[in-house]
Amino acid sequence: MRIGWTLGVVAACLASFSADSSAQVRSPPPDYWKCVNRVGGSWVFGRAPSACDASGFGDDKVVWSKYGPLVFGDARASATETPRYLEEMHAVIRDASAHYLRRRKPRASPIEVVVFRRAILALAHQESYWTHYRLASDQRLKMMRGDSGHGHGLMQIDDRFHFARILAGEAWDLTGNLAYALDIYYAEWERAGRASCVARVDDYETRARAAYSAYNGGPAQLCRWTDPNHKWARNDEGFLQKFRGQTWGARIADLKKPAAFDVACELDGGSNCLSPGGGAVAAAPYRAFLDEREVGVCVDTASGAECVGEARDLACLPIAAVKALRFDLGADRALDGASFRRIDRHEMCARPALGILPVGAWVRARTDINLRATAGGGRLGVVQTGEAAQVLDFEARADESLTRHYRVRTEAGRIGWVFAGGVETQARYVEEAPPRPAGLIPLSRARIVAPNGINVRRTPAGEEIGWVPNDAVAEVVGVVARGANNEIYLRIAARDGVEGFIYSGRASPELTMPLWVKSEDGP
Question: Residue of 63, 145, 399, 522 with fewest CB within 10 Å of its CB?
Fold first, then answer.
C-alpha cells in the first residue's frame, strides 16, 4: 500500500504529514529498514511472510499486556491456532471498523455500516491475511513486513511515505495501524460516492472497490478497478473476491465473540483501556452516570463508589493495589449525588503507597532508559544514566506490580515516555531529583508571559481574587496538577496582600505552558 497523501482528519497533523511524505519520496528508506531477525512465513492468516522483530518500533511488554491474544503462535498446531487467531482478529477489525464509521458519520445507515465493515475485513485480508504480531520459532515477537519490508503490519503502512509516523511506533501498535488505515480508507470511501465510476452513492459494493483502488494505489487510482488490463488489476480482483466471498466466516466459530480489549476506547485514543472479556474481580469496575452526565469509571468500596475520570487511572483506585487485574467492565450504573466520590487522578495516583511521582517533579535516570513516543511505543532515543528530566504526565498499568511510565522533558528539551518499573522496582529506573533551572513547570519563580496577565484565584479554578500582570515574576510556593490534561496551577506567594493560584497551561497532551508562564528557577 502506498500512502503518499494527507488525510484531513486532524488539522494540526496535516503539515507534518505532507512534509514527511515529500521528504520520504526524495530519500526513501532501504528495503527491510530496521528489520532484525527476519523470518519467513506462508500466505495463511497470521503468518503472511515476512516478519521482523517488533521491538525495533515498540516495547514487547506493551504488546503482551495489551494484545496478548492477538499474537499468532508459530509453535502451536495450525489446526487450532489459525481459527483461534482468526476469531480474535475478526472481533477487533469488526468492532474497530463499525465504531470508526459511526464516530465519523453518525447518520450512516445500518447497511452502510455493514458494508464498510466488510470492506475493512476484506482490505486487511488482501493486505496481510490479517497478520500483525507473531511469536516466531526463534521465540521473538515479530511484526509482519511486506513489499520488500516497506509495508508495516496489518494494513501495510508504507515507510517510504510515512517514515516519521512509523518511527514513532504508530504502525507497530495494532490499534494505531488499524486507525491510520481507517482514516485513509474512509476518506476514499467518501470520495468514491462522487466518483464518475460509481453510479450511485448507495452502490456500496462499487464504492468499496473504488476506495480500495485508491487505498492501494493512491488517490489518482480511484477508478483503477474499471481497467482489467491495469498492471495492478489482480489486486483489485483479489479484493473483490475477498469482499464477496468472506471466506473467513466459515472458519470462525463465534462471529460475535467480544474483542480481547476495549477497541472503541483504544481507537478513540484512550489509554489503559479496559478489557471487556478479561475476567471478573471482587468488585468489578463500572461506568457511572449522574443526571445523564458520565461521572467516570468506578469501583465499590465500603464507603460508596470511588471514581476516576478516565479508565487509564483505574489502576490507582484502592482495589487495584491488592488485585492483579484484567478488568471485566460491569454494567453502566446511575448514582445519586451522595453515593460516590470522584477523585482527581493526581490526588489518587500520587498516593504514597503507589510511589508515583507527581507532575512537575524532577527525576534522574538510574540506568539507561529508552525514550519513547508513547508509553511503550516507538523509540526516540535514550535517557542516559544520571540524566535529569521533569515529569509532564504519568500512566500506571493495571498489573500486579502497577508498572508505570512517565512522560518527561529532559534538560536538553527532549520529550517522550520512559518506563519506570513498578511499586517495588521504580528505584531501579528513576529517583526523585532536585529541581533544575531548565524546567518547563516553574517550581520556585515564574515570569508571566500571557499578554493580558493571569488572574489569581483562591483555589485552583476557583474564585478570582486578584491579578498578576504580564512580565511580572511571581514566587512559586507550590504546584498543583488537575484533570486528564494535567492543567497546572501555581500557588504563588502574596503579592499586594493577595496569595492564591494562577493557571499556567496544560502539560498533556500538548504543552501550552509556554503561552502562560516561563520558568525563572535558579540553580
Answer: 522
